[in-house]
Inverse folding.
């Protein structure tokens, strides 16, 4: 298994922090809202995270689906931490 370069690790940590804070704020603010608005917000957060992931790699290649799956896992993990 290859190790990531320090710059890549720092960028990944920065990316996760950029995703984490707004997600946590949303969860705290809307904890008791209905399922539909939660789903809409979840989708929006995933889209934002996927964009950040693609931006981090310079939008090179056709990895939009992989970016989406990675973002979905990150956002879902953050929501799970709160429940």
């Amino acid at each position: 298994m290859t190790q990531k370069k320090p710059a890549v690790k720092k960028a990944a940590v920065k990316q996760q922090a950029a995703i984490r804070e707004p997600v946590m704020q949303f969860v705290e603010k809307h904890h008791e809202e209905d399922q539909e608005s939660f789903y809409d917000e979840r989708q929006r957060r995933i889209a934002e995270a996927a964009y950040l992931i693609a931006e981090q790699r310079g939008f090179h290649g056709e990895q939009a689906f992989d970016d989406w799956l990675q973002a979905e896992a990150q956002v879902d993990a953050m929501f799970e931490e709160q429940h």
